[in-house]
Amino acid sequence: MLSFTADLAASQGARSYQEDAAALWPGPAASAPRFDLPAEDGKLVAVLADGMGGHAGGALASRTACSSFLDAYAHEHAPARDRLRAGLRASNHAIACEVEADRALRGMGSTLVGASFGPEGLEWVSVGDSPLYLWRRGEIARLNEDHSLAPLLDELVQAGRISQQQALADPRRHMLRWAVTGEELEHFDMAKKPLGLEAGDFVIIASDGIHSIDEPEIARIVAAYADAGPEAIAKALVRNVVGVDDPHQDNVTVIVVQPVHVEAATPPPETQEPSEVTQVPAETEVPSESTDEPRDKTA
Length: 299
Description:
The protein contains six helices and twelve strands. The chain is an alpha+beta fold.
């Protein structure tokens, strides 16, 4: 059977404030309240949000999205897919309530990636451009949709209407088509079915600040630190992003989850209570082997 270990790391980059937030249940949090409800056996939930709306608005949006998501997920007694939907709805509603209470916050919002790990594998819900990756045996693949304008610009490149250089330099490239803003959720991405995971896999959830390094470099870093585990990988990814030394580096937050194989616990064999010991006369023959053996319930 699989169990899950995870950790996270974050940096403000070149910004003077942090608009990312992330949390694990069970586990640590970054720029969001730690979620301390008792964990569910064999399961793990991760959520990451990248806020927008300025220093106050973006930070509030991402923090609100993460805490509301986990609270709703934990209290929804249903299959993981329904719990993920409930978490997304709760995040959107909580942001709407914040905006309603303070109209100066209009326009704030966040991306959101919520991921559920359990016996059946990985399921997720996402809105925005924060990537969700699977690393397996040296290869990396993005699992969720990118809701920025980047995919549309790349389609124009494929159609021969603009050059690759124009697509990469377009100032609209990182504009979001969809986000969690408190308004009606027009579009979100969900896993169609649970994705089976294997021991040795790594799942990476990140804010778009990670795009300062490309996917082959992300895969190389994961491979280099795989034996050291999620904490080392998360820190190495953030360290390499910061090492690019981009004067406009965005906030970057990274969650790394590792499935690990654990042996199923087997109950100990049932043993009989020892009987009362009596003195054996010296002339009595003592049997050389007991016929009263303990019974193994697993046999």
